Amino acid sequence: MNVPNLATLFLSLFLGLMILLFILRIVLTWYPQVDLNKLPFNLVAWPTEPLLKPLRKIVSPIGGVDITPVIWVGILTLLREILLGQQGLITMALHS
Fold it and tell me: Deepest of 8, 27, 59, 93, by most Cβ within 10 A of its Cβ?
């Protein structure tokens, strides 16, 4: 496996993992009694909170619901498609 393919694989796995963590974070918002400082919930909260915190200053909750994890799922999904999708920038650069 050459270096560009390895880097592409790593980026794809990283973005996929972050999307999964944000989806789990969305599910955790349905259970406000969950303590995000305890295992296993802190494994979801720790990597996502640094991205959610600044966005919460810009986007206020809608009807008392924090929608920032949904926004991050959209951003990361779009980024993954733009970079690594079938017509993605990295995909096209590696195959030209």
Answer: 8
